[in-house]
Amino acid sequence: AENLTPCGEHDGILFVDAEGLLRYVSGVAENLYRKLGHAESLLRHSITSLGTNESAYFAAIEGNRCFELETYEGQLIWIRKAIPVYGNDGRPRLSLPTTDHSPAFKGVLLTVSDVTDSRRREQELRVKAAMIQEIHHRVKNNLQTIASLLRMQSRRIQDPEARQLLDEGVNRILSVAVVHEFLSHDEGSVISIREVAQRIINHTVHGIIDPEKGIQLALRGGGFSLVAQQATACALVINELLQNAVEHGFADRKGGTIIVNLVEENNQAIIEIADDGEGLPPDFDLDKSASLGLGLKIVQTLVREDLKGTFELTDSVTNSRGVRAVVRFPLLPIPQE
Question: How confident is the model at residue 171 (pLDDT cuts 50, 70, 90)?
Answer without folding.
Answer: confident
